[in-house]
Amino acid sequence: MIQDILEELGYELRDGGSYYRMLPLYRASSNPSSLSVHKETGRFRDFSAGIYGSIEELVKLTLGLKTLEDANRWLDNRHLATTNDKIHKPNITVMKTYPKDMLSNLFPNFKFYTDKGVHEDVLHFLKCGMSTTGKLRNRIVFPIFHDDGSIVGWAGRDITGESDAKWKLMGPKRQWNYPAFFTSSEILETRKAILVESIGDGIALLNKGVNNFLVLFGVDLLKGVMSKLIELNPQKIIISLNNDSKKELNSGKIASQLIKEKLDNFFDDVEINLPTDGKDIFEMDDSEFRDWYEKV
After folding, report:
1. At how many degrees (to 10) do helices 68-77 and 55-63 cross?
2. For residues 250 and 208, which has the higher predicted lDDT (pLDDT)?
3. CA nearest 199: which of 237, 263, 153?
4. Which of 9, 56, 216, 261 is 20 to 30 Å from the Cα of 167, by its Cα?
Protein backbone atom coordinates (compact mmCIF):
# COMPACT_ATOMS: atom_id res chain seq x y z
CA MET A 1 0.00 0.00 0.00
CA ILE A 2 2.71 2.51 0.97
CA GLN A 3 4.72 1.56 -2.10
CA ASP A 4 1.67 2.18 -4.31
CA ILE A 5 1.13 5.63 -2.80
CA LEU A 6 4.75 6.68 -3.27
CA GLU A 7 4.95 5.43 -6.84
CA GLU A 8 1.65 7.16 -7.67
CA LEU A 9 3.18 10.38 -6.34
CA GLY A 10 6.11 9.93 -8.73
CA TYR A 11 8.84 8.84 -6.32
CA GLU A 12 11.61 6.51 -7.48
CA LEU A 13 12.15 4.15 -4.56
CA ARG A 14 15.41 2.75 -3.21
CA ASP A 15 15.25 -0.15 -0.76
CA GLY A 16 16.63 0.72 2.66
CA GLY A 17 15.62 -2.28 4.73
CA SER A 18 12.51 -1.31 6.65
CA TYR A 19 12.42 2.04 4.84
CA TYR A 20 12.14 3.37 1.30
CA ARG A 21 14.68 6.05 0.44
CA MET A 22 14.13 8.65 -2.25
CA LEU A 23 14.69 12.14 -3.57
CA PRO A 24 12.30 14.70 -2.01
CA LEU A 25 10.15 15.98 -4.88
CA TYR A 26 8.71 18.93 -2.96
CA ARG A 27 11.99 20.85 -2.65
CA ALA A 28 15.26 21.28 -4.51
CA SER A 29 17.68 18.50 -3.64
CA SER A 30 20.35 16.38 -5.31
CA ASN A 31 20.44 13.72 -2.59
CA PRO A 32 18.50 10.61 -3.72
CA SER A 33 18.17 9.32 -0.15
CA SER A 34 17.39 12.43 1.88
CA LEU A 35 13.76 11.37 2.26
CA SER A 36 12.89 8.09 4.00
CA VAL A 37 9.47 6.48 4.43
CA HIS A 38 8.72 3.52 6.68
CA LYS A 39 7.41 0.63 4.59
CA GLU A 40 4.68 -0.37 7.03
CA THR A 41 3.53 2.82 8.75
CA GLY A 42 4.19 5.33 5.99
CA ARG A 43 5.81 7.73 8.47
CA PHE A 44 8.30 9.92 6.61
CA ARG A 45 11.38 11.87 7.62
CA ASP A 46 13.25 14.44 5.56
CA PHE A 47 16.61 14.50 7.31
CA SER A 48 18.11 17.56 5.65
CA ALA A 49 14.98 19.70 6.05
CA GLY A 50 14.18 18.43 9.57
CA ILE A 51 10.58 17.56 8.62
CA TYR A 52 8.67 14.41 9.48
CA GLY A 53 5.08 13.21 9.68
CA SER A 54 2.40 10.84 8.37
CA ILE A 55 1.92 9.55 4.83
CA GLU A 56 -1.06 11.90 4.45
CA GLU A 57 1.19 14.83 5.27
CA LEU A 58 3.73 13.65 2.71
CA VAL A 59 0.97 13.53 0.08
CA LYS A 60 -0.08 17.06 1.02
CA LEU A 61 3.52 18.29 0.90
CA THR A 62 4.38 16.57 -2.38
CA LEU A 63 1.27 17.68 -4.27
CA GLY A 64 1.19 21.16 -2.74
CA LEU A 65 -2.32 20.61 -1.36
CA LYS A 66 -3.89 23.03 1.11
CA THR A 67 -5.25 20.64 3.75
CA LEU A 68 -4.94 17.07 5.00
CA GLU A 69 -8.55 16.57 3.95
CA ASP A 70 -7.44 17.24 0.36
CA ALA A 71 -4.70 14.65 0.79
CA ASN A 72 -7.17 12.07 2.10
CA ARG A 73 -9.53 12.77 -0.81
CA TRP A 74 -6.64 12.21 -3.23
CA LEU A 75 -5.94 8.87 -1.53
CA ASP A 76 -9.64 7.91 -1.52
CA ASN A 77 -10.04 8.66 -5.20
CA ARG A 78 -7.23 6.21 -5.95
CA HIS A 79 -8.42 3.65 -3.39
CA LEU A 80 -5.19 4.24 -1.46
CA ALA A 81 -6.71 5.34 1.84
CA THR A 82 -4.60 4.54 4.88
CA THR A 83 -5.67 3.24 8.26
CA ASN A 84 -3.93 5.95 10.29
CA ASP A 85 -6.46 7.42 12.71
CA LYS A 86 -4.14 9.93 14.31
CA ILE A 87 -2.81 12.90 12.42
CA HIS A 88 0.67 14.08 13.41
CA LYS A 89 1.86 17.53 12.52
CA PRO A 90 5.36 17.75 11.11
CA ASN A 91 7.90 19.34 13.43
CA ILE A 92 10.51 21.81 12.28
CA THR A 93 12.96 22.59 15.08
CA VAL A 94 14.86 25.86 15.11
CA MET A 95 18.01 25.75 17.20
CA LYS A 96 19.05 28.58 19.47
CA THR A 97 22.09 30.45 18.23
CA TYR A 98 24.79 32.33 20.12
CA PRO A 99 26.46 35.63 19.13
CA LYS A 100 29.74 35.08 17.30
CA ASP A 101 31.41 37.82 19.31
CA MET A 102 31.42 35.35 22.23
CA LEU A 103 34.42 33.76 20.51
CA SER A 104 36.47 36.82 21.48
CA ASN A 105 36.05 35.79 25.14
CA LEU A 106 38.05 32.59 24.54
CA PHE A 107 41.77 32.86 25.20
CA PRO A 108 44.28 31.00 22.96
CA ASN A 109 45.82 29.12 25.88
CA PHE A 110 46.41 25.66 24.39
CA LYS A 111 49.05 24.30 26.76
CA PHE A 112 46.74 21.48 27.91
CA TYR A 113 46.69 20.06 24.38
CA THR A 114 50.10 21.13 23.07
CA ASP A 115 51.71 19.31 26.01
CA LYS A 116 50.04 16.19 24.59
CA GLY A 117 51.58 16.75 21.17
CA VAL A 118 48.67 18.54 19.47
CA HIS A 119 49.67 21.18 16.92
CA GLU A 120 48.36 24.67 17.63
CA ASP A 121 47.04 25.05 14.09
CA VAL A 122 44.59 22.21 14.78
CA LEU A 123 43.15 24.12 17.73
CA HIS A 124 43.03 27.39 15.81
CA PHE A 125 41.23 25.51 13.01
CA LEU A 126 38.48 24.51 15.48
CA LYS A 127 38.31 28.11 16.81
CA CYS A 128 38.50 26.91 20.41
CA GLY A 129 40.00 28.63 23.44
CA MET A 130 40.02 28.73 27.21
CA SER A 131 37.10 30.25 29.09
CA THR A 132 37.75 32.09 32.35
CA THR A 133 34.13 32.93 33.18
CA GLY A 134 30.65 31.46 33.23
CA LYS A 135 29.46 27.84 33.26
CA LEU A 136 32.48 26.67 31.24
CA ARG A 137 35.09 28.41 33.35
CA ASN A 138 38.54 26.76 33.36
CA ARG A 139 37.70 24.67 30.29
CA ILE A 140 38.96 24.62 26.74
CA VAL A 141 35.76 25.53 24.92
CA PHE A 142 34.88 24.39 21.40
CA PRO A 143 32.11 26.29 19.58
CA ILE A 144 29.59 24.04 17.84
CA PHE A 145 28.87 25.45 14.39
CA HIS A 146 25.76 24.76 12.33
CA ASP A 147 25.89 24.34 8.55
CA ASP A 148 25.33 28.06 7.99
CA GLY A 149 28.21 29.04 10.29
CA SER A 150 26.03 30.06 13.23
CA ILE A 151 27.02 28.88 16.71
CA VAL A 152 24.45 26.48 18.20
CA GLY A 153 26.30 25.16 21.24
CA TRP A 154 29.50 24.79 23.20
CA ALA A 155 31.61 21.88 24.45
CA GLY A 156 34.04 22.50 27.29
CA ARG A 157 36.94 20.23 28.30
CA ASP A 158 38.00 20.55 31.94
CA ILE A 159 41.73 21.26 32.29
CA THR A 160 41.96 21.40 36.08
CA GLY A 161 41.22 17.77 36.93
CA GLU A 162 38.97 19.03 39.71
CA SER A 163 35.61 18.63 37.98
CA ASP A 164 33.57 15.43 38.11
CA ALA A 165 32.64 16.00 34.45
CA LYS A 166 35.56 15.90 31.99
CA TRP A 167 33.32 17.36 29.28
CA LYS A 168 30.45 19.79 29.74
CA LEU A 169 28.04 20.52 26.88
CA MET A 170 25.70 23.45 26.31
CA GLY A 171 23.04 23.21 23.62
CA PRO A 172 20.83 20.59 21.87
CA LYS A 173 23.46 17.84 21.46
CA ARG A 174 21.18 15.48 19.56
CA GLN A 175 20.86 18.01 16.75
CA TRP A 176 24.60 18.62 16.38
CA ASN A 177 26.69 17.33 13.47
CA TYR A 178 30.05 18.57 14.75
CA PRO A 179 32.41 19.39 13.12
CA ALA A 180 30.65 19.08 9.75
CA PHE A 181 31.08 22.84 9.21
CA PHE A 182 34.82 22.09 8.87
CA THR A 183 34.88 18.49 7.61
CA SER A 184 31.94 18.08 5.18
CA SER A 185 34.05 18.95 2.14
CA GLU A 186 36.58 16.24 3.01
CA ILE A 187 33.82 13.66 3.53
CA LEU A 188 32.40 14.56 0.13
CA GLU A 189 35.83 14.32 -1.49
CA THR A 190 36.90 11.01 0.08
CA ARG A 191 33.36 9.54 0.05
CA LYS A 192 34.16 8.22 3.55
CA ALA A 193 32.99 9.32 7.00
CA ILE A 194 34.59 8.26 10.29
CA LEU A 195 32.38 8.40 13.40
CA VAL A 196 34.26 9.01 16.66
CA GLU A 197 33.17 9.30 20.25
CA SER A 198 34.62 12.63 21.41
CA ILE A 199 36.18 15.90 20.32
CA GLY A 200 39.46 14.55 21.71
CA ASP A 201 39.33 11.73 19.15
CA GLY A 202 38.61 14.28 16.44
CA ILE A 203 41.59 16.37 17.52
CA ALA A 204 43.80 13.28 17.29
CA LEU A 205 42.59 12.69 13.72
CA LEU A 206 43.16 16.31 12.69
CA ASN A 207 46.62 16.15 14.26
CA LYS A 208 47.38 13.26 11.87
CA GLY A 209 45.91 15.08 8.88
CA VAL A 210 42.61 13.14 8.81
CA ASN A 211 39.69 15.50 8.22
CA ASN A 212 36.72 13.32 7.24
CA PHE A 213 35.03 12.63 10.57
CA LEU A 214 31.99 13.48 12.71
CA VAL A 215 31.76 13.43 16.51
CA LEU A 216 28.96 11.59 18.36
CA PHE A 217 29.60 13.06 21.84
CA GLY A 218 29.04 9.61 23.31
CA VAL A 219 27.96 6.23 22.03
CA ASP A 220 24.59 7.02 20.40
CA LEU A 221 23.87 7.97 16.79
CA LEU A 222 22.76 11.59 17.04
CA LYS A 223 19.86 12.83 14.92
CA GLY A 224 22.04 15.66 13.58
CA VAL A 225 24.83 13.27 12.58
CA MET A 226 22.40 10.91 10.86
CA SER A 227 20.88 13.83 8.96
CA LYS A 228 24.30 15.01 7.82
CA LEU A 229 25.33 11.52 6.72
CA ILE A 230 22.16 11.21 4.65
CA GLU A 231 22.92 14.58 3.08
CA LEU A 232 26.58 13.81 2.31
CA ASN A 233 25.81 10.21 1.27
CA PRO A 234 29.32 8.73 1.75
CA GLN A 235 30.11 5.42 0.07
CA LYS A 236 31.68 4.09 3.28
CA ILE A 237 31.12 4.81 6.99
CA ILE A 238 33.63 3.70 9.62
CA ILE A 239 32.51 3.51 13.26
CA SER A 240 35.48 4.09 15.60
CA LEU A 241 34.21 4.43 19.14
CA ASN A 242 36.54 3.98 22.10
CA ASN A 243 37.75 0.40 22.47
CA ASP A 244 37.04 -0.55 26.07
CA SER A 245 37.06 -4.31 25.54
CA LYS A 246 39.40 -4.71 28.53
CA LYS A 247 36.60 -3.43 30.74
CA GLU A 248 33.69 -5.55 31.87
CA LEU A 249 30.97 -3.54 30.13
CA ASN A 250 32.60 -3.63 26.67
CA SER A 251 30.28 -0.71 25.83
CA GLY A 252 32.26 0.55 22.84
CA LYS A 253 31.82 -2.63 20.81
CA ILE A 254 28.19 -3.05 21.84
CA ALA A 255 27.31 0.56 20.98
CA SER A 256 29.18 0.33 17.67
CA GLN A 257 27.13 -2.68 16.64
CA LEU A 258 23.86 -0.90 17.52
CA ILE A 259 24.91 2.14 15.48
CA LYS A 260 25.86 -0.11 12.57
CA GLU A 261 22.45 -1.77 12.60
CA LYS A 262 20.79 1.65 12.31
CA LEU A 263 23.09 2.82 9.53
CA ASP A 264 22.72 -0.43 7.58
CA ASN A 265 19.13 0.64 6.82
CA PHE A 266 20.45 3.59 4.82
CA PHE A 267 23.99 2.83 3.68
CA ASP A 268 25.52 -0.12 1.87
CA ASP A 269 29.03 -0.09 3.38
CA VAL A 270 29.24 0.40 7.15
CA GLU A 271 32.21 -1.01 9.06
CA ILE A 272 33.33 -1.11 12.69
CA ASN A 273 37.03 -0.36 13.13
CA LEU A 274 37.82 0.29 16.78
CA PRO A 275 41.18 1.64 17.97
CA THR A 276 43.83 -0.58 19.55
CA ASP A 277 42.41 -2.81 22.30
CA GLY A 278 41.66 -0.83 25.45
CA LYS A 279 42.31 2.62 23.93
CA ASP A 280 40.69 5.53 22.15
CA ILE A 281 42.12 7.26 19.08
CA PHE A 282 43.84 9.97 21.12
CA GLU A 283 45.68 7.37 23.20
CA MET A 284 47.18 5.40 20.29
CA ASP A 285 50.86 5.83 19.49
CA ASP A 286 52.07 6.39 15.91
CA SER A 287 52.45 2.70 15.15
CA GLU A 288 49.01 1.81 16.53
CA PHE A 289 47.47 4.70 14.63
CA ARG A 290 49.01 3.54 11.33
CA ASP A 291 47.70 0.00 11.87
CA TRP A 292 44.23 1.36 12.62
CA TYR A 293 44.21 3.83 9.71
CA GLU A 294 45.30 1.21 7.17
CA LYS A 295 42.03 -0.60 7.89
CA VAL A 296 40.09 2.62 7.36
Report:
1. 100
2. 208
3. 153
4. 261
Q: Which alpha helices (H) appear in 106-194, and where do they start and end?
A: 111-114, 120-125, 180-190
Integer Cα distance of 249 and 193 in angstroms: 27
Residue ranges with strand state E in the chain: 14-16, 19-22, 35-38, 44-46, 51-53, 129-131, 139-145, 151-158, 167-170, 192-196, 213-215, 236-240, 270-272
Is the pLDDT confidence value at 85 over 70?
no
Cα 183 → chain centroid: 12
What is the chain's alpha carbon radius of gyration, rounded to the nearest angstrom?
Answer: 22
H or E element that contains 164: none
Q: Mean pLDDT throughout 162-171?
A: 91
How do residues 225-262 score in pLDDT, each as one tens digit? 998 999 899 999 999 998 876 655 677 888 899 999 99
CA–CA separation, 20 vs 23, rounded Å?
10
Evaluate whether 221 touches 193 at the Cβ level (below 8 Å).
no
3 state DSSP class of 213: strand
Strands 270-272 and 236-240: parallel
